[in-house]
Amino acid sequence: MIKAGIIGATGYAGAELVRLLLGHKNVEIKWYGSRSYIDKKYSDVYQNMFEIVEDKCLDDNMEALADQVDVIFTATPQGFCASMINEEILSKTKVIDLSADFRIKDVRTYEQWYKIQHKAPQFIGEAVYGLCEINREQVKKARLVANPGCYTTCSILTCYPLVKEGLIDPDTIIIDAKSGTSGAGRGAKADNLFCEVNENMKAYGVASHRHTPEIEEQLGYAAGKQLTLNFTPHLVPMNRGILATAYASLVKDVDYETVREVYDKYYKEEKFVRVLDQEMYPQTKWVEGSNYVDINFKIDPRTKRVIMMGAIDNLVKGAAGQAVQNMNLMFGEDEAEGLNLVPMFP
Length: 346
Description:
Blueprint: E1 2-7, H1 12-22, E2 27-33, H2 42-45, H3 62-66, E3 71-74, H4 80-84, H5 87-92, E4 94-97, H6 107-114, E5 128-129, H7 132-140, E6 144-146, H8 150-164, E7 174-179, H9 194-197, E8 202-203, H10 212-223, E9 230-235, E10 242-249, H11 256-267, E11 273-275, E12 293-300, E13 305-312, H12 316-330
Parallel strand pairs: 1-2, 1-3, 3-4, 4-6, 5-6, 7-9, 11-12
Antiparallel strand pairs: 7-10, 8-9, 10-13, 12-13
Helix pairs in contact: 1-12, 7-12, 8-10
């Protein structure tokens, strides 16, 4: 059995980790970490866990936790993992960080976009960006994995094949993305109140969202050069889901079959990436509660651009599900163990 500890177990991503790991046949959760609810029963925080989880919430002592478990998940705000991690911890256990602390390889870029000083730059080089479909072999050997962001997971996987194969000009990419409110976390914020969100849609982080450099960096690796793109997120009045619509200029005339072959080249054997049939477009409701990414595209010959679309559940493939997928790879488990989740509807 893999012994797992979760720091930040009472946030939305942490709670989703609990739900998924409880369904994993080879995992035992040893530590439900939550600074806000120390000594409170976990099922008193999340009543859906009544008579399922009897444990009380513990603190966020990563050094003590490292002595007890094989893997630590940190579902915490930016800066926490970097401020706590050290060589002694990594010598004892593997760490999967759901924050942005180790996603971006350039420290100055991280500090510029996140407005905090990085406390552990010595580990950035070895941290593996845990987008399993692209970095699977590196993840298998990692002791520190940077779990990708939700917007970034959807955006990168949607665009990656066409960037990698050079079918589009990467500097022309424009990404328009929508997210449910759970993507903002469980903390109390006026912008997330019912009266603020209900019957409303809005753009936010315009030309300044912190996932922008992460998307640029990872697609830059695919393109073989640095690139600059536009990314605009929107908040929509639903609990879960991300829909990303990306636009880019084609570098040559191509037909549907050519583009489809490129997507199939990268994703045909991927369990969790579903390239939809022609004229069938991704919808958040068809991936809700699952680890799937639904992707499709449309060529617009009038503008000589391609429109790429992707949908995920932001708490599963965009956070906890991807973290479990990474854990499975790191410990030699079946990659899909604990993640064979049929999307929920309605």
